Amino acid sequence: MTKAPRKGTRAIVIGDSLAGMLAAAAVKDSFDTVEIIEAHDVPHAPHARTGVPQAAHIHPLLSGGAKAIDTLLRGTIAQLLKAGANQVPMTTNMVYLSPEGWHRRWQRDTHYLIAASRDLTDSVIRQQVLKDKRIDVHPHARVITLLGDARRIAGVKLRAADGSEHDVSGDLVIDASGRSTRTPRWLAELGITGLVEDHIDSGMAYTSRIYRAPVTTANWPLINVLPDPALPGPAAAIVPIEGDRWHVSAYGPLGSSPGRERGNLEDYVRSLRHPIVADLLKHAEPLTDVTATHSTANHRFYYERLKARPEGLIVLGDAVAAFNPVYGHGMSVVTQGALAVRKLLSAGISPDFARQAQRAIARPVDVAWSLAVGQDILYPTTTGKRATRADRLLHSYVSRLSRTATGNFRVATVLTDVLTLEAPPTVLLRPDILLAAAVGPLRPPLNGPALTAEERQRLQTAGVRLL
Predict the structure, then answer these.
(1) Which of 4, 196, 217, 441 could form a disulfide linkage to 240, CB 3.0–4.6 angstroms apart?
(2) pTM of the model
């Protein structure tokens, strides 16, 4: 008779963030109960969560992450779409100006992104997770320390809103508390040292606003205008989200990005390499204030490298690695990490489960980290790491691939595989891709944005005139 996988009694998740909810979904079948500890209110509708200032900026969910979410929580993506989110095929519905030129809108069905506000995404996932009666949320409670020792974590000590403290035992503790994580300090208090961390900051500033779109956003393309890292300048994207709204984010080097003042965002996008974003916003109605942030640094802890670490503790999400939001990988990396944890647990809780899980969580982090840092270190304003000759050589090759992708379907497909986290960057070194890069684009460059005749007609009907 096959022995049933070993289960645990209680798992404790610190934080009801997206990472926390997905962590609960990943472990629920392997524990009798899952307790989520949250320091703030827990919204029950698509409202902003306290402690998530980045929610004001665009949050695309790439297909690599969306597929992982549907594996963890079957039907979630369908629920998001039902709630108004848009599924944007990549590159079919992307109007994309890369540093190397305008990309074609290749007809494809394999890659996509889910375009929605972060509040809606969080709300739908939270509702899906909390349907399970084994999962409970405790708001207004803070974890103040870990229970156990350097060999094994046995739970947490909580402080309630009234100041009272009590212990909660657990077979597994998952820190999903985000950038404010206290796990490094807690480990140090247990005598565990040697945790390596990186902090690489390009100095970018990010500014966002939500608008009423002059056209319906169903089947509307994502607009993205990028700068060249060798010539730092402004960039902006328009993401079609629920409610016929455009979520607009613009970014640029510190000192040359727009502030929070009303009207600055619209003026700023006039300095982009192409006027399409400014022309579209001229006919859009602002619905929110302008939100600005300078929190775009890449920060990572290498828990998987610790020689001595306690069992019973894993770290997930921004508490492990936070990326420059410009690249849109954060939510997808969290989801892939949570799915990796569930796959490990399908065989039961092994004696070294936490070590294995932390290594599995690190794999999608590695991919996104290499993509984000590989770009950010090229900016002259970047601190924490400088580009080496090898880094610049690699960037030159990727730039050549991007130029080739403007006129080569195969290369465009492989680049999209990597950018949506559905394939590792090593696929860019396949012999056929190396050869394609040497040959270059097979079609002539486009002279402007590849809007379809139907899209131009919709704009004309709405009174929108593009220069």
Answers:
(1) 217
(2) 0.92
Domain count, the chain: 1
165 SS3 class: strand
Q: Is residue 448 part of a domain?
A: no
Q: Mean pLDDT across the chain, nearest whole number?
A: 90
Domain of residue 15, CATH code: 3.50.50.60
Alpha helix (H) residue ranges in 73-198: 76-82, 118-129, 183-189
Integer Cα distance of 320 and 176 in angstroms: 9
In a domain, residue 143? The reply is yes
53 pLDDT more than 70: no
Length of the chain in terms of residues written: 467
**CA dihedral of 381, 386, 389, 390, whole degrees rounded to 10:** -120
CB 248 within 8 A of CB 236: yes
Mean pLDDT of 277-297: 90
- Enumerate the β-bridge partners of residue 112: 89
Distance CA 375, CA 327 (A): 10
Domain annotation covers residue 417: no
What is the Cα–Cα distance from 373 to 457, expressed in whole angstroms? 40
Q: How far apart are CA 437 and CA 434, in angstroms?
A: 5
Range of 162's domain?
8-59+118-197+296-374
